[in-house]
């Protein structure tokens, strides 16, 4: 069975694209919204990450903990923020290779901003059958597409709640 390699969901928040961008483009803060991410290390400033900057993401799923090395691939204030995950490990991101790309787009709408979060599976060299077996083990029975779909929806809901001051 061919695997789904891109998942995307959107939400409208009642803040400007610039405000939404500033929140999302600070990878150290992602742990406040994501059900899996615990924040980052390696971003020098607390402000928005710049194009080409690297950070180490800290993650958890149940009792399991791991880190990833990421590079910012798009930093267009108020419009688009993206980063590529290209190394993974338990305490240090030592295993290198294409893993995933995360992208956030910010579109002005009448009621504020539509934020679209997209996950792209960069494991293109993996045979679908191998990826599907690995995914079901790593996610306790789900494909990464289904798993990330739930995570994206939770992240967007949490981000909306925070950006709107707890009213979302």
Report what the structure shows.
By secondary structure, this protein is α+β, with helices and mostly antiparallel strands. The protein is built from three helices and seven strands. It has helices at residues 17-24, 128-138, 144-163; strands at residues 6-13, 37-41, 54-61, 64-76, 80-89, 95-109, 112-121. A seven-stranded antiparallel β-sheet has the order 1-7-6-5-4-3-2, covered by helices on one side. A hairpin with a 2-residue loop joins β3 (54-61) and β4 (64-76). The longest helix has 20 residues, at 144-163. The chain is globular. The model has no long low-confidence stretch (mean pLDDT 90).
What is the topology?
Blueprint: E1 6-13, H1 17-24, E2 37-41, E3 54-61, E4 64-76, E5 80-89, E6 95-109, E7 112-121, H2 128-138, H3 144-163
Antiparallel strand pairs: 1-7, 2-3, 3-4, 4-5, 5-6, 6-7
Order of secondary-structure elements: EHEEEEEEHH
- The end-to-end distance, rounded to whole angstroms, is 38 Å
In the sheet with the most strands, the strands line up as 1-7-6-5-4-3-2
Q: What assembly state would you assign to the polypeptide chains in this entry?
A: single chain
Helix content: 10-25%
General shape: globular
> Tell me about the biggest sheet?
7 strands, antiparallel
Class based on secondary structure composition and strand pairing: alpha+beta
State which percent range the strand residues make up: 35-45%
Q: Care to count the β-strands?
A: 7
Query: Roughly how many Å is the radius of gyration?
Result: 16 Å
| Count of runs of 4 or more consecutive helical residues | 3
